[in-house]
Amino acid sequence: MTGQGLSVDATVRRGGFSLAVAFEVPPGQVLGVLGPNGAGKTTLLRALAGLTPVAEGRITLGGQVVDDAADGTFLDAAHRPAGYVFQDYRLFPHLTVADNVAFSPRARGLGKAAARAAARDWLDRLGLAALAGRKPAELSGGQAQRVALARALAGDPALLLLDEPLAALDARTRLDVQAELRQHLAGFAGPCLLVTHDPLEALVLADRLLVLEDGQIVQDSTPGRVARQPATEYVAKLVGLNLYPGRADGAAVTLQAGGSFTVAGHGCHGDVLVAVRPSAVVVSTGQPHATSARNNWPAEVTGLTMLADRVRLDLYGTPPALADVTPAAVSELSLAPGSRVWLSVKATDLEVYPRDHGRPG
Amino acid sequence: MAADIIGEPARLSARDRVRRADRGGGNSRSVPAPLLVPAVVAVAFLVLPLAGLVVRAPWGHLGAALSGADAVQALVLSLWTATVTTGICLVIGVPLAWVLARISFPGQRLLRALVTLPLVLPPVVGGVALLLAFGRTGFVGRLLDDWFGLTIPFSPLAVVLAETFVAMPFLVITVEGALRSADQGFEEAAATLGASRMTTFRRVTVPLIAPSLGAGAVLCWARALGEFGATITFAGSFPGRTETMPIAVYYALENDPDAAIALSLLLLLVSVAVLASLRDRWLRGGGAVQ
Predict the structure, then answer these.
(1) Which one of A200, A234, A268 terminates a domain?
(2) ipTM of the prediction
(3) CA-to-CA distance for B154 and B166, rounded, in angstroms?
C-alpha cells in the first residue's frame, strides 16, 4: 500500500491552526499543492521535511516510517532524506555557491574533497559552474533559485519539497526558470511536492494537483481536471471559471445562487457543481427570441476589466456571472456599468459534475 | 484675526530649509533652554575631567613615566589577563548564550537574570563572593586545595577569575541578542541539508553572528582590562603578580602622580580605540544593542 513513495495520513498543528491531510505520492510524480494563503501549504511541507512533528497520524517515506505520533517515531530534519527549496531560498550568505551546494554532502559525512566533487557535479548539471565562486548576494533571482535547487538535490534526497520556488522571481525570469525547473523535476526519481498559488505554474509543472483550503484537501486530481471542473470557488476563480453549486434533477439544475440551468445529459443527481467559461457566456442587449441557447437570463453590468485581448464583464443577475467579450463588442453594444443586458449559455457549454468530486475518502 | 493668532510665518533661508529637512521635518524648531542648559552641563561634566587628564599629562616625559618597572609590569599583566579572560568567556560564554537563545527550559528567565547580575552588582561584592567560593577556606577553594594543592586567591589566576566574573555578561548578552535576532531560517535550511545542531552552530550560526561575536569579545576585553573592585578584593595588588593597570593607577596616584596620569592616558586611549572599533554598532543614532 505505501510502496516506495510518500504516504501521508496525518494532522499537523501549528499555533491555533490545524492541517489534516491524507494522500500518497508515487516515486517520480510531481504533486502540485495549490491553495490560498494560510491554507496550510507550508505547514504541510514543514511536516514532511521533519521541521514540525505531526500531532496525529503518520508519514511514511520509501517504506520507512519517518513520523508516527502513535509510537513516537520521529526522524528529525537533519536525518530525514528530504530536500527543501525554501521560498526565500535561504542560501548561506557567508558561503560561496560551491560551498552552499557542497554543504549537504559534507554534513552527511563526505570529506571536503568528495563533497566539492559532488557539488561540482550538480553545478555542472544545472549550468551553474561559472557561478561557483560567487556569494549569494552576487546572484540574480533566477540564479539563486537554481543554486537553491542544486543545494537541495546535492544531498541526494528521497523526497523533494519546493515552496513557491518561483514566487520571488519577476515575471520575465519566471517563464525561463519554469521551463528549466520542469526539466530538472522530470529528472528527479523520488516523489516531489511543489507548493504554489499560481495556477499556471501548477498546470505546467505538476503531474497531479492537491488543492488545500483551511487545512483540508478540497480537491485531489489531475491539473486538467482541476482546471475544467474546479471543486471550490477559490479554484474556479484561479482558473477563471464561473462556478455554481446547485441541485440536479433530470435536465434541470437549481442553483444555490438563484435561477436554474438547463443542462445536457450528464447523469448526475443531487448536489452538483456547474462550471462555465466566461467566453461561453453570450451577451446581448435585448432578449434573444430565436436562439439555440437553452439558458437565457437578464443581468446588469457592474464592472468592466480590460484583460489582454478582451474585456471581462462583471454581471449581476440570477445567477451572477463573468463574461468575456471583445473590446469591439463593448463599443458596439455600448456596454457600461449599469447597462441592462441578456446572458445566454448553451447547455453543452455547461460542465456539470458531482459536488464531492475529487474529495478524498 | 486668524493671522494674529497664528503669528507671522518665520522666514527660512535656503540653508535653514536644508538643515530642517535633514533633521526630519518641521518639528525641530529651536531647542528650549530648560533642555539645552542641562544638556550642556552634562556634556561639560563628562568631557572636562577627560580634558584635564589630557592637559595635565606629563607630555615631556611620558615615555619615562610609562617605562617604570611597575607600569610595564602592570601593563603586561593587564593585557594578558584581559586576553585570557576574553578567551575563557568565548569558550564558555558563547555556548551559554546559545542555550539561553535557542533552548527553552524551566527557570530560563531566572538563569538569564543570574547571568546578567554581575552587570549591576558592585564589583567589590563580586570579589567578596569569589573569595568565599574560591578562597582557601571557601567551599570550592578548600576542595581545590585538598585535591590539587591549588590556591587561587592573590594569584594571576585570581585576576583572570575576577575579570571573567565581571566581564562575561557583556559577551553573553551581546551574543544572545545576536542569536535571537539572527534569521533562524538559515538554521532550518542547514537542518534540512542534514546538518546536526553542532554542525549548524559551527558552520552557519557562528559565521552569521560573527560581527556581534567580535563586538561582544571587544566589550568583554575592555571590561576585563578596566576591572578594579573584584580584582583587588579577590586577587590583591602584588606588583608583577596581581597588580593590574587600574590598580597600579590607584596606587601610583599617591607616590608618582605623573605615572598615574600617563597610565590613565593609556587606558583612555584603549577605550577610545574600543569605541572606534564598535562605532558601527553602538554609536549610530538611537542604535539599540543588537
Answers:
(1) A234
(2) 0.82
(3) 17
